[in-house]
Amino acid sequence: MTSRTSFDAALAGRADTIVSRFLDRAARDPERVVFTVFPMGALNALGTLTWGDWASRARNVSGALLAQRLGKGARVAVYASNRELWPIALLGAAMSGAITVMLSPDATKTSLMAELQDCSPSVVIVDTIARLKLVRQVQAESRQTFTIVCDDLDPLRTSTAESLFEWEAWLKSGALALETYESLRQEFAERVDWVVPGDIIAIAYKPGTSVGVMYLHEAASAMAVTLTRDLNMTLADRIAVARSFSGVFECALGVFAAIHAGASVALVESVSDALRAARLHESTIVCGSEDILLEMNDHLRRARMNQENPRASASLLVGAQCHTMVCVSEGLATESECDLHGAGITLATFYGIPEHALICRNGPDNWYDDSIGEPVSDAVRVDYYGQLQVRRGPMSAVGYYCREDEFQRQCEPDGSWLRTGDRVEQLEDGALRLVGRMADLIKLPGGVSTSTDDIEAALCSLPYVAHAVCHGAHDKPLVAVLSLRRKEVERWARVQGIVAPWAALVDHPLVYDELANGIARINALRDQRERVRGFAPRELEFNIHTGELDQAGHINRAVLLGRFEHVFADLHNRLRY
Asked: Which CATH number fits domain 444-576: 1.10.10.10, 3.40.50.150, 3.30.300.30, 3.40.50.1820?
Protein backbone atom coordinates (compact mmCIF):
# COMPACT_ATOMS: atom_id res chain seq x y z
CA MET A 1 0.00 0.00 0.00
CA THR A 2 1.39 3.42 -0.91
CA SER A 3 0.93 6.60 1.12
CA ARG A 4 1.09 10.14 -0.12
CA THR A 5 2.65 12.65 2.28
CA SER A 6 2.10 15.80 0.21
CA PHE A 7 -1.20 17.61 -0.21
CA ASP A 8 -2.54 19.97 -2.85
CA ALA A 9 -5.62 21.87 -1.66
CA ALA A 10 -6.38 23.12 -5.16
CA LEU A 11 -6.52 19.57 -6.51
CA ALA A 12 -8.86 18.61 -3.67
CA GLY A 13 -11.16 21.46 -4.72
CA ARG A 14 -11.34 22.83 -1.18
CA ALA A 15 -9.51 25.33 1.02
CA ASP A 16 -6.43 23.94 2.77
CA THR A 17 -7.85 23.13 6.21
CA ILE A 18 -7.64 20.31 8.73
CA VAL A 19 -10.90 18.98 7.24
CA SER A 20 -9.57 18.87 3.67
CA ARG A 21 -6.31 17.26 4.79
CA PHE A 22 -8.26 14.75 6.86
CA LEU A 23 -10.45 13.76 3.93
CA ASP A 24 -7.36 13.52 1.72
CA ARG A 25 -5.68 11.14 4.19
CA ALA A 26 -8.81 9.02 4.43
CA ALA A 27 -9.12 8.80 0.65
CA ARG A 28 -5.47 7.85 0.14
CA ASP A 29 -5.01 5.44 3.08
CA PRO A 30 -8.48 4.16 4.04
CA GLU A 31 -7.23 0.84 5.45
CA ARG A 32 -4.34 2.21 7.51
CA VAL A 33 -4.93 2.30 11.28
CA VAL A 34 -4.95 5.79 12.78
CA PHE A 35 -6.30 5.17 16.31
CA THR A 36 -5.69 2.28 18.69
CA VAL A 37 -8.04 2.29 21.67
CA PHE A 38 -6.93 1.49 25.24
CA PRO A 39 -9.96 1.66 27.58
CA MET A 40 -9.47 2.27 31.28
CA GLY A 41 -7.75 -0.69 32.96
CA ALA A 42 -7.47 -2.73 29.76
CA LEU A 43 -4.37 -4.92 29.57
CA ASN A 44 -4.38 -4.77 25.77
CA ALA A 45 -5.79 -2.61 23.00
CA LEU A 46 -9.51 -3.28 22.55
CA GLY A 47 -10.05 -1.81 19.12
CA THR A 48 -8.67 0.20 16.23
CA LEU A 49 -9.98 2.84 13.89
CA THR A 50 -8.73 3.22 10.32
CA TRP A 51 -8.57 6.47 8.39
CA GLY A 52 -11.46 5.27 6.24
CA ASP A 53 -13.63 4.32 9.22
CA TRP A 54 -12.83 7.62 10.93
CA ALA A 55 -14.01 9.54 7.86
CA SER A 56 -17.12 7.37 7.48
CA ARG A 57 -18.15 7.72 11.13
CA ALA A 58 -17.38 11.45 11.15
CA ARG A 59 -19.62 11.74 8.08
CA ASN A 60 -22.37 10.00 10.05
CA VAL A 61 -21.97 12.57 12.84
CA SER A 62 -22.41 15.30 10.23
CA GLY A 63 -25.51 13.52 8.94
CA ALA A 64 -27.03 13.34 12.42
CA LEU A 65 -26.34 17.04 12.99
CA LEU A 66 -27.76 18.05 9.61
CA ALA A 67 -30.83 15.87 10.25
CA GLN A 68 -31.48 18.02 13.32
CA ARG A 69 -31.37 21.05 10.99
CA LEU A 70 -28.44 22.59 12.84
CA GLY A 71 -27.04 25.63 11.10
CA LYS A 72 -23.41 26.53 10.58
CA GLY A 73 -21.86 27.61 13.88
CA ALA A 74 -24.07 25.39 16.06
CA ARG A 75 -22.25 24.15 19.17
CA VAL A 76 -21.59 20.46 19.83
CA ALA A 77 -20.17 19.86 23.31
CA VAL A 78 -17.96 16.84 24.02
CA TYR A 79 -17.68 15.81 27.68
CA ALA A 80 -15.55 12.67 27.66
CA SER A 81 -12.19 11.06 28.31
CA ASN A 82 -10.02 9.87 25.43
CA ARG A 83 -12.23 7.55 23.45
CA GLU A 84 -12.60 7.22 19.70
CA LEU A 85 -15.80 9.28 19.89
CA TRP A 86 -13.63 12.36 20.53
CA PRO A 87 -11.89 12.61 17.12
CA ILE A 88 -14.99 11.30 15.35
CA ALA A 89 -17.21 13.97 16.91
CA LEU A 90 -14.61 16.71 16.38
CA LEU A 91 -14.17 16.09 12.65
CA GLY A 92 -17.85 15.30 12.13
CA ALA A 93 -18.84 18.61 13.66
CA ALA A 94 -16.17 20.43 11.65
CA MET A 95 -17.35 18.93 8.35
CA SER A 96 -20.91 20.10 9.02
CA GLY A 97 -19.79 23.62 9.93
CA ALA A 98 -20.52 23.12 13.64
CA ILE A 99 -18.22 24.14 16.49
CA THR A 100 -16.90 21.58 18.99
CA VAL A 101 -17.05 22.75 22.61
CA MET A 102 -14.22 21.03 24.49
CA LEU A 103 -15.38 20.25 28.04
CA SER A 104 -12.90 18.85 30.54
CA PRO A 105 -13.82 15.33 31.71
CA ASP A 106 -12.89 16.51 35.21
CA ALA A 107 -15.44 19.35 35.17
CA THR A 108 -17.49 19.66 38.34
CA LYS A 109 -21.24 20.15 38.30
CA THR A 110 -20.81 23.88 38.96
CA SER A 111 -18.29 24.47 36.18
CA LEU A 112 -20.20 22.20 33.79
CA MET A 113 -23.39 24.18 34.34
CA ALA A 114 -21.60 27.49 33.81
CA GLU A 115 -19.96 26.30 30.60
CA LEU A 116 -23.11 24.73 29.13
CA GLN A 117 -25.10 27.86 29.92
CA ASP A 118 -22.39 29.96 28.30
CA CYS A 119 -22.10 28.01 25.03
CA SER A 120 -25.77 26.92 24.66
CA PRO A 121 -25.00 23.67 22.80
CA SER A 122 -27.46 21.92 20.52
CA VAL A 123 -25.87 18.52 21.23
CA VAL A 124 -23.84 17.20 24.19
CA ILE A 125 -21.83 14.00 23.66
CA VAL A 126 -20.69 12.05 26.75
CA ASP A 127 -18.92 8.76 27.27
CA THR A 128 -20.02 7.31 30.62
CA ILE A 129 -23.28 6.89 32.52
CA ALA A 130 -21.82 8.95 35.40
CA ARG A 131 -21.22 11.91 33.09
CA LEU A 132 -24.64 11.39 31.51
CA LYS A 133 -26.30 11.70 34.94
CA LEU A 134 -24.36 14.89 35.66
CA VAL A 135 -25.33 16.44 32.33
CA ARG A 136 -28.99 15.54 32.86
CA GLN A 137 -28.93 17.11 36.33
CA VAL A 138 -27.46 20.29 34.87
CA GLN A 139 -29.99 20.24 32.05
CA ALA A 140 -32.90 19.89 34.46
CA GLU A 141 -31.69 22.65 36.79
CA SER A 142 -30.76 25.09 34.02
CA ARG A 143 -33.83 24.22 31.90
CA GLN A 144 -31.71 24.05 28.77
CA THR A 145 -32.81 22.14 25.70
CA PHE A 146 -30.24 20.01 23.90
CA THR A 147 -29.80 16.49 22.55
CA ILE A 148 -27.65 14.13 24.64
CA VAL A 149 -25.66 11.30 23.07
CA CYS A 150 -23.99 8.72 25.37
CA ASP A 151 -21.45 6.06 24.42
CA ASP A 152 -22.11 3.67 27.33
CA LEU A 153 -25.89 3.93 27.23
CA ASP A 154 -28.00 0.80 26.79
CA PRO A 155 -29.82 1.27 23.46
CA LEU A 156 -33.07 0.18 25.15
CA ARG A 157 -32.87 3.16 27.52
CA THR A 158 -32.79 5.75 24.74
CA SER A 159 -35.74 8.03 24.26
CA THR A 160 -36.18 10.31 21.27
CA ALA A 161 -38.90 12.11 23.21
CA GLU A 162 -36.30 13.08 25.79
CA SER A 163 -33.67 13.74 23.09
CA LEU A 164 -31.45 10.98 24.47
CA PHE A 165 -29.51 8.72 22.09
CA GLU A 166 -27.00 5.90 22.33
CA TRP A 167 -23.80 6.78 20.41
CA GLU A 168 -23.86 3.97 17.83
CA ALA A 169 -27.59 4.38 17.23
CA TRP A 170 -27.09 8.10 16.71
CA LEU A 171 -24.36 7.45 14.14
CA LYS A 172 -26.65 5.01 12.31
CA SER A 173 -29.40 7.62 12.25
CA GLY A 174 -26.96 10.05 10.65
CA ALA A 175 -25.93 7.50 8.04
CA LEU A 176 -29.58 6.68 7.29
CA ALA A 177 -30.49 10.35 6.93
CA LEU A 178 -27.71 10.93 4.40
CA GLU A 179 -28.65 7.76 2.53
CA THR A 180 -32.35 8.61 2.41
CA TYR A 181 -32.43 12.30 1.59
CA GLU A 182 -30.73 13.69 -1.50
CA SER A 183 -31.13 17.25 -0.22
CA LEU A 184 -29.23 16.32 2.95
CA ARG A 185 -26.40 14.75 0.95
CA GLN A 186 -26.17 17.88 -1.17
CA GLU A 187 -26.14 20.10 1.90
CA PHE A 188 -23.41 17.96 3.47
CA ALA A 189 -21.25 18.23 0.35
CA GLU A 190 -21.72 22.00 0.31
CA ARG A 191 -20.89 22.32 4.02
CA VAL A 192 -17.64 20.38 3.53
CA ASP A 193 -16.68 22.45 0.51
CA TRP A 194 -17.45 25.68 2.36
CA VAL A 195 -15.12 24.98 5.30
CA VAL A 196 -12.50 27.75 5.20
CA PRO A 197 -9.55 28.68 7.48
CA GLY A 198 -11.55 31.57 8.96
CA ASP A 199 -14.29 29.31 10.38
CA ILE A 200 -14.35 28.53 14.09
CA ILE A 201 -13.50 24.88 14.78
CA ALA A 202 -13.53 24.72 18.59
CA ILE A 203 -14.21 26.49 21.88
CA ALA A 204 -12.03 25.57 24.87
CA TYR A 205 -12.72 26.92 28.35
CA LYS A 206 -10.06 28.66 30.39
CA PRO A 207 -9.41 26.61 33.56
CA GLY A 208 -11.51 27.73 36.50
CA THR A 209 -13.67 30.07 34.41
CA SER A 210 -16.64 30.02 32.07
CA VAL A 211 -14.70 31.98 29.46
CA GLY A 212 -14.70 30.12 26.15
CA VAL A 213 -11.64 30.63 23.94
CA MET A 214 -12.45 30.33 20.21
CA TYR A 215 -10.00 28.74 17.78
CA LEU A 216 -10.23 28.91 13.98
CA HIS A 217 -9.50 26.16 11.46
CA GLU A 218 -6.48 28.31 10.60
CA ALA A 219 -5.17 27.91 14.16
CA ALA A 220 -5.67 24.13 14.04
CA SER A 221 -3.60 23.93 10.86
CA ALA A 222 -0.90 26.28 12.17
CA MET A 223 -0.50 24.32 15.41
CA ALA A 224 -0.33 21.08 13.41
CA VAL A 225 2.44 22.48 11.21
CA THR A 226 4.41 23.78 14.23
CA LEU A 227 4.21 20.52 16.21
CA THR A 228 5.04 18.41 13.16
CA ARG A 229 8.10 20.57 12.51
CA ASP A 230 9.35 20.92 16.09
CA LEU A 231 8.92 17.23 16.94
CA ASN A 232 10.16 16.03 13.54
CA MET A 233 6.96 14.02 13.13
CA THR A 234 6.58 11.72 10.15
CA LEU A 235 4.17 9.16 8.77
CA ALA A 236 6.01 6.48 10.75
CA ASP A 237 5.47 8.10 14.16
CA ARG A 238 3.12 6.60 16.71
CA ILE A 239 1.77 8.95 19.38
CA ALA A 240 0.32 8.01 22.77
CA VAL A 241 -2.05 10.59 24.27
CA ALA A 242 -3.40 10.02 27.78
CA ARG A 243 -4.84 13.41 28.68
CA SER A 244 -8.20 14.37 27.25
CA PHE A 245 -8.49 16.08 23.87
CA SER A 246 -10.41 18.80 25.75
CA GLY A 247 -6.95 20.31 26.26
CA VAL A 248 -5.96 22.45 23.28
CA PHE A 249 -2.39 21.12 23.29
CA GLU A 250 -3.45 17.46 23.47
CA CYS A 251 -5.97 17.99 20.67
CA ALA A 252 -3.40 19.82 18.55
CA LEU A 253 -0.92 16.95 18.92
CA GLY A 254 -3.21 13.92 18.95
CA VAL A 255 -5.63 15.04 16.23
CA PHE A 256 -4.44 18.01 14.17
CA ALA A 257 -0.72 17.13 14.00
CA ALA A 258 -1.57 13.45 13.50
CA ILE A 259 -3.66 14.42 10.48
CA HIS A 260 -0.93 16.70 9.15
CA ALA A 261 1.86 14.14 9.55
CA GLY A 262 -0.24 11.03 8.96
CA ALA A 263 0.88 9.57 12.30
CA SER A 264 -1.06 6.94 14.25
CA VAL A 265 -2.33 7.57 17.78
CA ALA A 266 -2.99 5.51 20.92
CA LEU A 267 -6.16 6.73 22.63
CA VAL A 268 -5.50 6.09 26.33
CA GLU A 269 -8.60 6.63 28.44
CA SER A 270 -6.80 6.77 31.81
CA VAL A 271 -3.50 8.49 32.61
CA SER A 272 -2.60 5.60 34.91
CA ASP A 273 -2.52 3.28 31.87
CA ALA A 274 -0.43 5.61 29.70
CA LEU A 275 2.98 3.97 29.98
CA ARG A 276 1.68 0.43 29.52
CA ALA A 277 -0.35 1.54 26.51
CA ALA A 278 2.66 3.35 25.02
CA ARG A 279 4.72 0.19 25.41
CA LEU A 280 2.07 -2.00 23.77
CA HIS A 281 1.42 0.55 21.05
CA GLU A 282 5.17 0.89 20.43
CA SER A 283 4.72 4.65 20.59
CA THR A 284 7.55 6.86 19.41
CA ILE A 285 6.12 10.01 21.02
CA VAL A 286 4.35 9.99 24.40
CA CYS A 287 2.23 13.00 25.34
CA GLY A 288 2.31 12.86 29.11
CA SER A 289 1.72 14.79 32.29
CA GLU A 290 3.53 15.40 35.55
CA ASP A 291 1.93 12.20 36.96
CA ILE A 292 3.45 10.15 34.15
CA LEU A 293 6.85 11.79 34.60
CA LEU A 294 6.73 11.06 38.34
CA GLU A 295 5.93 7.41 37.63
CA MET A 296 8.91 7.21 35.28
CA ASN A 297 11.14 8.88 37.85
CA ASP A 298 10.16 6.38 40.54
CA HIS A 299 11.05 3.60 38.12
CA LEU A 300 14.42 5.21 37.32
CA ARG A 301 15.16 5.70 41.01
CA ARG A 302 14.72 1.99 41.64
CA ALA A 303 16.88 1.24 38.60
CA ARG A 304 19.70 3.37 39.99
CA MET A 305 19.45 1.60 43.35
CA ASN A 306 19.83 -1.70 41.50
CA GLN A 307 22.73 -0.24 39.50
CA GLU A 308 20.82 -0.63 36.23
CA ASN A 309 21.21 1.58 33.16
CA PRO A 310 18.55 4.34 33.51
CA ARG A 311 17.91 4.71 29.77
CA ALA A 312 17.57 0.96 29.27
CA SER A 313 15.28 0.77 32.29
CA ALA A 314 13.11 3.57 30.92
CA SER A 315 12.80 1.69 27.64
CA LEU A 316 11.40 -1.31 29.50
CA LEU A 317 8.74 0.94 31.02
CA VAL A 318 7.67 3.08 28.06
CA GLY A 319 8.96 0.98 25.16
CA ALA A 320 12.20 0.95 23.22
CA GLN A 321 10.66 2.84 20.30
CA CYS A 322 9.86 5.97 22.34
CA HIS A 323 12.22 8.76 21.33
CA THR A 324 10.44 11.78 22.86
CA MET A 325 8.28 12.58 25.88
CA VAL A 326 6.08 15.64 25.33
CA CYS A 327 4.04 17.66 27.82
CA VAL A 328 2.72 21.12 28.61
CA SER A 329 5.16 23.38 30.48
CA GLU A 330 4.10 24.79 33.83
CA GLY A 331 7.04 27.21 33.94
CA LEU A 332 10.48 26.18 35.11
CA ALA A 333 11.44 22.62 34.32
CA THR A 334 10.13 20.44 37.15
CA GLU A 335 12.40 18.19 39.17
CA SER A 336 10.89 15.20 37.36
CA GLU A 337 11.66 16.71 33.95
CA CYS A 338 15.25 17.54 34.93
CA ASP A 339 15.82 14.04 36.32
CA LEU A 340 14.47 12.39 33.19
CA HIS A 341 16.55 14.62 30.94
CA GLY A 342 19.59 13.76 33.05
CA ALA A 343 18.84 10.07 32.52
CA GLY A 344 19.00 10.52 28.76
CA ILE A 345 15.25 10.73 28.07
CA THR A 346 14.50 13.23 25.30
CA LEU A 347 11.91 15.73 26.49
CA ALA A 348 9.98 18.51 24.80
CA THR A 349 7.75 20.84 26.81
CA PHE A 350 5.58 23.58 25.33
CA TYR A 351 4.59 26.76 27.16
CA GLY A 352 1.49 28.66 26.16
CA ILE A 353 -1.67 30.35 27.37
CA PRO A 354 -5.30 29.49 26.56
CA GLU A 355 -5.32 32.23 23.91
CA HIS A 356 -2.12 31.01 22.22
CA ALA A 357 -1.17 27.43 23.07
CA LEU A 358 2.32 27.28 21.55
CA ILE A 359 4.58 30.19 22.56
CA CYS A 360 7.84 28.60 23.77
CA ARG A 361 9.44 25.19 23.36
CA ASN A 362 11.97 23.57 25.70
CA GLY A 363 13.72 20.69 23.89
CA PRO A 364 13.93 18.30 22.21
CA ASP A 365 17.19 19.66 20.79
CA ASN A 366 18.07 22.44 23.26
CA TRP A 367 17.07 21.73 26.86
CA TYR A 368 17.03 24.31 29.69
CA ASP A 369 16.56 23.40 33.33
CA ASP A 370 15.90 27.01 34.30
CA SER A 371 13.55 28.35 31.64
CA ILE A 372 10.49 27.75 29.47
CA GLY A 373 12.81 27.43 26.49
CA GLU A 374 13.02 29.28 23.21
CA PRO A 375 10.15 31.11 21.49
CA VAL A 376 8.45 29.00 18.83
CA SER A 377 8.64 32.04 16.54
CA ASP A 378 10.16 35.53 16.71
CA ALA A 379 6.72 37.08 17.28
CA VAL A 380 7.25 37.68 21.02
CA ARG A 381 8.31 40.73 23.00
CA VAL A 382 8.71 41.83 26.61
CA ASP A 383 7.01 45.05 27.72
CA TYR A 384 8.10 47.69 30.24
CA TYR A 385 6.87 45.64 33.21
CA GLY A 386 8.59 42.47 32.02
CA GLN A 387 5.36 40.93 30.74
CA LEU A 388 5.69 38.51 27.86
CA GLN A 389 3.54 39.40 24.88
CA VAL A 390 2.94 37.36 21.73
CA ARG A 391 1.90 38.76 18.37
CA ARG A 392 -1.54 37.59 17.27
CA GLY A 393 -1.17 35.28 14.31
CA PRO A 394 -2.44 32.05 12.77
CA MET A 395 -2.01 30.05 16.01
CA SER A 396 -3.81 32.63 18.18
CA ALA A 397 -7.38 32.38 19.41
CA VAL A 398 -9.77 34.65 17.55
CA GLY A 399 -11.57 35.78 20.71
CA TYR A 400 -13.77 34.78 23.64
CA TYR A 401 -17.21 33.37 22.93
CA CYS A 402 -19.74 36.21 23.42
CA ARG A 403 -17.11 38.22 25.32
CA GLU A 404 -15.37 40.32 22.69
CA ASP A 405 -14.76 43.28 25.05
CA GLU A 406 -13.11 41.00 27.59
CA PHE A 407 -10.83 39.54 24.92
CA GLN A 408 -9.82 43.02 23.76
CA ARG A 409 -8.70 43.79 27.32
CA GLN A 410 -6.33 40.82 27.02
CA CYS A 411 -4.71 42.54 24.03
CA GLU A 412 -2.68 45.70 23.56
CA PRO A 413 -4.77 48.73 22.47
CA ASP A 414 -3.98 48.19 18.78
CA GLY A 415 -5.19 44.58 19.09
CA SER A 416 -2.09 43.06 17.52
CA TRP A 417 -0.36 41.73 20.66
CA LEU A 418 -1.70 39.33 23.31
CA ARG A 419 -0.68 39.85 26.93
CA THR A 420 0.25 36.52 28.52
CA GLY A 421 0.01 37.75 32.11
CA ASP A 422 3.43 36.18 32.80
CA ARG A 423 6.57 38.18 33.58
CA VAL A 424 9.79 36.86 32.06
CA GLU A 425 13.45 37.63 31.70
CA GLN A 426 15.43 36.83 28.59
CA LEU A 427 18.58 34.74 28.95
CA GLU A 428 21.70 35.37 26.89
CA ASP A 429 20.96 32.51 24.50
CA GLY A 430 17.45 33.78 23.75
CA ALA A 431 15.56 31.42 26.06
CA LEU A 432 12.96 32.90 28.41
CA ARG A 433 12.62 32.37 32.15
CA LEU A 434 9.35 32.92 34.02
CA VAL A 435 9.80 35.22 37.01
CA GLY A 436 6.22 35.87 38.11
CA ARG A 437 2.69 36.86 37.23
CA MET A 438 1.47 40.33 36.32
CA ALA A 439 -1.36 39.74 38.79
CA ASP A 440 1.28 39.82 41.52
CA LEU A 441 2.40 43.34 40.55
CA ILE A 442 1.02 46.08 42.77
CA LYS A 443 1.20 49.83 42.28
CA LEU A 444 2.43 51.59 45.43
CA PRO A 445 2.44 55.26 46.48
CA GLY A 446 4.87 57.23 44.34
CA GLY A 447 3.80 55.43 41.16
CA VAL A 448 6.19 52.50 41.52
CA SER A 449 4.96 49.05 40.43
CA THR A 450 6.56 46.08 42.12
CA SER A 451 6.11 42.34 42.37
CA THR A 452 5.15 40.86 45.69
CA ASP A 453 6.94 37.60 44.81
CA ASP A 454 10.48 38.67 45.64
CA ILE A 455 9.35 40.64 48.71
CA GLU A 456 7.45 37.65 50.06
CA ALA A 457 10.39 35.38 49.26
CA ALA A 458 12.68 37.71 51.23
CA LEU A 459 10.29 37.64 54.20
CA CYS A 460 10.17 33.84 54.05
CA SER A 461 13.97 33.76 54.24
CA LEU A 462 13.66 34.94 57.85
CA PRO A 463 14.13 31.96 60.18
CA TYR A 464 10.72 32.29 61.85
CA VAL A 465 8.52 33.03 58.80
CA ALA A 466 6.94 30.12 56.89
CA HIS A 467 4.74 32.11 54.51
CA ALA A 468 4.03 35.77 53.82
CA VAL A 469 1.41 37.61 51.81
CA CYS A 470 1.84 41.31 51.03
CA HIS A 471 -0.72 43.94 50.11
CA GLY A 472 -0.55 47.54 48.98
CA ALA A 473 -2.13 50.00 46.58
CA HIS A 474 -1.50 53.34 44.90
CA ASP A 475 -2.59 55.08 48.12
CA LYS A 476 -1.51 52.42 50.63
CA PRO A 477 2.06 51.37 51.50
CA LEU A 478 3.18 47.75 51.56
CA VAL A 479 2.11 45.67 54.57
CA ALA A 480 2.36 41.94 55.24
CA VAL A 481 0.59 39.11 57.05
CA LEU A 482 3.01 36.45 58.27
CA SER A 483 2.46 32.76 58.97
CA LEU A 484 5.13 31.70 61.45
CA ARG A 485 7.19 28.52 61.79
CA ARG A 486 5.72 27.33 65.06
CA LYS A 487 8.48 24.90 66.08
CA GLU A 488 11.25 27.43 65.43
CA VAL A 489 9.42 30.21 67.26
CA GLU A 490 8.69 27.98 70.27
CA ARG A 491 12.31 26.80 70.32
CA TRP A 492 13.52 30.42 70.25
CA ALA A 493 11.05 31.34 73.02
CA ARG A 494 12.36 28.59 75.32
CA VAL A 495 15.91 29.89 74.87
CA GLN A 496 14.64 33.37 75.78
CA GLY A 497 12.84 32.02 78.85
CA ILE A 498 9.41 32.90 77.50
CA VAL A 499 6.60 30.60 78.63
CA ALA A 500 3.30 31.19 76.84
CA PRO A 501 0.70 29.29 74.81
CA TRP A 502 1.03 29.57 71.02
CA ALA A 503 -1.72 32.17 70.55
CA ALA A 504 -0.12 34.45 73.14
CA LEU A 505 3.40 33.76 71.90
CA VAL A 506 2.56 35.00 68.40
CA ASP A 507 1.60 38.40 69.87
CA HIS A 508 4.46 38.54 72.39
CA PRO A 509 6.41 41.85 72.20
CA LEU A 510 9.79 40.08 72.00
CA VAL A 511 8.59 37.92 69.09
CA TYR A 512 7.30 41.04 67.36
CA ASP A 513 10.64 42.81 67.91
CA GLU A 514 12.58 39.83 66.53
CA LEU A 515 10.44 39.85 63.38
CA ALA A 516 10.70 43.65 63.09
CA ASN A 517 14.50 43.49 63.22
CA GLY A 518 14.55 40.93 60.41
CA ILE A 519 12.17 43.00 58.28
CA ALA A 520 14.28 46.12 58.92
CA ARG A 521 17.30 44.31 57.47
CA ILE A 522 15.28 43.40 54.37
CA ASN A 523 13.96 46.97 54.02
CA ALA A 524 17.48 48.39 54.16
CA LEU A 525 18.24 46.60 50.88
CA ARG A 526 15.13 47.84 49.06
CA ASP A 527 13.98 51.05 47.43
CA GLN A 528 12.30 53.24 50.03
CA ARG A 529 8.98 53.04 48.19
CA GLU A 530 9.06 49.21 48.21
CA ARG A 531 9.63 48.67 51.92
CA VAL A 532 7.30 46.76 54.22
CA ARG A 533 5.78 49.41 56.50
CA GLY A 534 3.76 47.18 58.76
CA PHE A 535 3.17 43.51 59.48
CA ALA A 536 0.95 41.19 61.48
CA PRO A 537 2.03 37.70 62.59
CA ARG A 538 -0.82 35.17 62.77
CA GLU A 539 -1.12 31.97 64.75
CA LEU A 540 -2.66 30.23 61.74
CA GLU A 541 -0.24 27.99 59.87
CA PHE A 542 -1.08 28.19 56.17
CA ASN A 543 -1.76 24.81 54.55
CA ILE A 544 -3.38 23.19 51.54
CA HIS A 545 -6.38 21.71 53.35
CA THR A 546 -7.66 25.04 54.67
CA GLY A 547 -7.13 26.76 51.34
CA GLU A 548 -4.30 29.18 52.11
CA LEU A 549 -1.92 27.19 49.88
CA ASP A 550 -2.55 25.63 46.47
CA GLN A 551 -1.68 22.03 45.58
CA ALA A 552 1.88 23.08 44.70
CA GLY A 553 2.38 24.63 48.15
CA HIS A 554 2.29 28.23 46.89
CA ILE A 555 0.19 30.86 48.62
CA ASN A 556 -3.35 31.22 47.34
CA ARG A 557 -3.32 35.00 47.05
CA ALA A 558 -7.00 35.55 46.31
CA VAL A 559 -8.04 33.46 49.33
CA LEU A 560 -5.57 35.16 51.68
CA LEU A 561 -6.38 38.71 50.60
CA GLY A 562 -10.04 38.01 51.26
CA ARG A 563 -9.49 36.13 54.51
CA PHE A 564 -7.21 38.80 55.99
CA GLU A 565 -8.93 41.84 54.49
CA HIS A 566 -9.68 43.22 57.97
CA VAL A 567 -6.06 42.66 59.08
CA PHE A 568 -4.67 44.57 56.10
CA ALA A 569 -7.21 47.36 56.69
CA ASP A 570 -6.16 47.59 60.35
CA LEU A 571 -2.46 47.76 59.42
CA HIS A 572 -3.10 50.58 56.94
CA ASN A 573 -5.24 52.47 59.46
CA ARG A 574 -2.46 52.29 62.05
CA LEU A 575 0.02 53.71 59.53
CA ARG A 576 -2.41 56.46 58.56
CA TYR A 577 -3.16 57.61 62.07
From this structure: 3.30.300.30
